[in-house]
Sequence to fold (320 residues):
Amino acid sequence: MHNIDIKKSAVETLELEATAIQHLTQTIGEDFVSVVNKILNLQGRVIVTGVGKSAIIAQKIVATFNSTGTPSIFMHAADAIHGDLGIIQENDLIIALSKSGNTPEIKVLVPFLKQTGNTLVALVGNLTSFLAQQADYVLDTSVSREACPNNLAPTTSTTAQLAMGDALAVSLLTCRQFSDRDFAKYHPGGALGKQLYLRVADLSDQNGRPEVAPQANIREVIITITKFRLGATAVIDKHEILGIITDGDIRRMLEKYEDLTGLTAGDIMATSPKTIERNELAVEALQQMRQHNISQLLATQDGSYQGIIHLQDLLKEGII
Fold:
């Protein structure tokens, strides 16, 4: 075992798989174009099926299709012949994945698929196989060999299947002019989705609205900052924003003054605090915080104080 060059083995694997993917560029032909056009005009869904490792790749292709605007369902080839064929509806298109195209499950399944009259696409590694001969369209994912030293374990072949699935998905989203906002609709919990829809108010409204009057004493200021745990409080007089006091202002006050008697919020506040309208995107708040090297902004509505948005809010939401 110690004589095995691990790095060499890894590099050879990646080179074999890279070569296989590069070879796929030569297999993209009219069938590929026809399949994309069929899916673009599809009234139903894309049903993707396979068995073994091909089934795992099929599930990934389904996930990519669904997240990029192509309604898809995974159907395991073995389960299909035991009741799951009911998934298939009249206007669906079926993509069957198989390296050999001759597995027992595929040979049993394909005749049933042909009976339904649905379009059958073979994503297959053997162009002379039963599946390839029976399919309406063939996407060639043949490889010269597996990366496995014994040429047995599906490695290069599944990589080729995965890459072909990605090529389909990207071609479809490109044709649909699928934008980042479209992507966000299907990923509302993801970082990109949140950047495109999460607003300042969604976060600041959860934080409460710490504020003190300009004549408030230092004890009241510290209690207010501590209570809301936002590291700051606004200084408000007759609904007008006069300033902000942060944890840093408290520390600077202690350095500057030995006697705190008689000090008020108005004495230690920073004037002209940075603000952001509550209906602005939260990612805009992040940009302002970075620009000014600060940790919080006062949220406003038409200039009226509404609360505070803190850097930690953005961290919790995964926007940073």
